[in-house]
């Protein structure tokens, strides 16, 4: 939708991806809320930069909804 070029790194679940995120081996990940237990993004560590649903998450209401922050139609 934006033309951004990314390299996909396939993982067998969220836990190995989180290990690589916190270790600095990958720059970003798309994940599901249940896969991101680890460090609470509200206290540092991993930082949620967008939520891909139609409305804000009740668990992290401060995380912006992607479709409402400039990428219309993203879900």
- CA radius of gyration is 13 Å
Distance between the amino and carboxyl termini: 11 Å
Number of helices: 1
Residue share in β-strands = under 5%
- Describe the main β-sheet briefly: none
Q: Label the overall shape.
A: globular
Helical coverage, percent range: 10-25%
Find the count of extended strands (DSSP E, 2+ residues): 0
Q: What structural category do the secondary elements indicate?
A: little secondary structure
Write the layout of secondary structure elements.
Elements: H1 14-22
Tell me what you see in this structure:
- It is a single chain.
- The protein is mostly loops.
- Helices cover 12% and strands 0% of the residues.
- The protein contains one helix and no strands.
- It is globular.
Key traits:
75 residues; 1 helix; little secondary structure; 12% helix
Q: What is the structure about, briefly put?
A:
The relative contact order is 0.16. Helices cover 12% and strands 0% of the residues. It is mostly loops and 75 residues long.
